[in-house]
Amino acid sequence: MKFFLLLSAIGFCWAQYAPNTKPGKTSIVHLFEWRWADIALECERYLGPKGFGGVQISPPNENVVINNPSRPWWERYQPISYKLCTRSGNEDEFKDMVTRCNNAGVHIYVDAVINHVCGHGVAAGTGSTCGSYFNPGNRDFPAIPFSAWDFNDGKCRTGSGDIENYNDPYQVRDCRLSGLLDLALEKDYVRSKIAEYLNHLIDLGVAGFRIDASKHMWPGDMKAILDKLHNLNTTWFPEGSKPFIYQEVIDLGGEPIKSSDYFENGRVTEFKYGAKLGTVLRKWHGEKMAYLKSWGEGWGFMPSDRALVFVDNHDNQRGHGAGGASILTFWDPRLYKMGVGFMLAHPYGFTRVMSSFRWPRYFQNGKDINDWVGPPNNNGVIKEVTINEDTTCGNDWVCEHRWRQIRNMVMFRNVVDGQPFTNWWDNGSNQVAFGRGNKGFIVFNNDDWPLSLTLQTGLPAGTYCDVISGDKIGDNCTGIKIYVSGDGKAHFSVSNSAEDPFIAIHAESKLYNLN
Ligand code: QV4
Ligand code: CA
């Protein structure tokens, strides 16, 4: 047992499963479509001080410019070259961001689109974000360069050349994902070009990668690419550190390709997490919060130390990639805050917080016809993230990560890091509570009646500030105060009509001059 623990400790420190965040920092935030200049500022002015460990950025490499519809967010998932040159900024701005974020103790995780380039139907002469020429029709991408024999056209056996049946793993790997030209990743030349791109990013100081569309690549091909990667830049990371790898595989069950097929390469996105949590908080299909007692592997999720978890992502918040109706987003703020609060309090998985832009959502026959709309912009130029006097964001940037309830739960997770899941209580319905050892405690009321009772918190005696209804400022609390007595018990009242029907306290929200 001891030997096994030692081995897994070494594994955790050195392998691609470790997030490479600074000690005690336990979450990252996806700043979807932000400019590099804004991310650099956000690292310094907000993310560092508030305990965020890192930022997932949008794909930084040159992509096709789509004008019909007008500059959709998804054009960034159609690469043209590996030049660092997009609407978010150029290579100098990228370097500046990585340097300043790393210096602020906040690491950068790159969304790596390596399964494909642009769509086969895109016309030659269509623009790209850095002006590189390309011709999808004859598979010519001279700025990389890739040409016809670097693609999977000969291998795919479907009539359309696109993936038609997710029950056939060969199609899923060797055919085109919605028309996107599929790379021949078994070729050493193709692997090397991709590794060169990723190594360039590593050398500039990034800490890891979200590997886009991993389900559409053979795990062994991916491994061959990952084996070519450098260790992280020693200006900011311990010698011998490997990039953190989390692979986008949507496995909701029922397909032959499984998340577990990818564990040898790194972590995997757990899409069951947000789908199920949304169902529970919406109380659909007879689900209730009491069932969350066994949340995690007990719900059929992958092992915690392989999981990258999130309540929503840039796809499923707008009905793309596994975007079921249960997914909670900023459009349902009350339930969303509870969902993110639950995720950040619960020990399962490595957590990613979503930070979105607002778009003119418009449902027709159950589908959002504006699901394509790109980031806030002036004639295509992405707008700056302005900061209002109350610390929220302007210019239609939602900045969920700056919502008090979410920001404070990111800190909660840091404070309770490593503590066991303890003192579970539920009312058999939608009122639940649990602790994290002697460091933190959280209570939820998602029933239609008030909660009022005394619970064992596991915390040392004292007066604590609820970080959901307010903030601890100096030794004052702008929200609800909770009095924990010598036996660890405290009384909680959570109205079902409260703005946020949950309360969270932790070791660092204790008010020291009060007892
Ligand atoms: C259209 C037609 C095709 C036709 C093609 C011809 O629909 O039938 O063959 O033209 O060129 C866009 C359009 C799509 C268009 C395609 C090719 O939506 O209609 O095809 O481009 O031009 C994002 C968007 C996609 C978008 C893609 C590329 O979600 O809509 O496609 O970017 O711009 C699966 C995968 C999973 C994936 C998820 C969305 O297993 O890996 O679908 N998720 C990731 C990203 C996601 C991204 C991609 C993968 C692709 O998170 O954002 O797709 O990189 O579940
Ligand atoms: Ca593929």
Automatic annotation (TrEMBL):
* CDD domains (UniProt xref): AmyAc_bac_euk_AmyA
Q: Which Pfam families match?
A: Alpha-amylase, Alpha-amylase_C
- Keyword Signal attributed: yes
User: In Gene Ontology terms, what is one molecular function of this protein?
Assistant: alpha-amylase activity
| Cofactor(s) recorded in Swiss-Prot or TrEMBL | chloride; Ca(2+)
Q: Which UniProt keywords apply?
A: Calcium, Carbohydrate metabolism, Chloride, Disulfide bond, Glycosidase, Hydrolase, Metal-binding, Pyrrolidone carboxylic acid, Signal
Question: What's the EC number here?
Answer: 3.2.1.1
Name all Glycosyl hydrolase family 13 catalytic domain ranges.
26-413
Q: Which GO terms describe its biological process?
A: carbohydrate metabolic process
- In the UniProt record, does the keyword Cell division occur? no
Q: Where is the signal peptide?
A: 1-15
Would you identify the family this protein belongs to, as annotated? Answer: Belongs to the glycosyl hydrolase 13 family.
Q: What is this protein called?
A: Alpha-amylase
Q: Which organism is it from?
A: Rhinolophus ferrumequinum
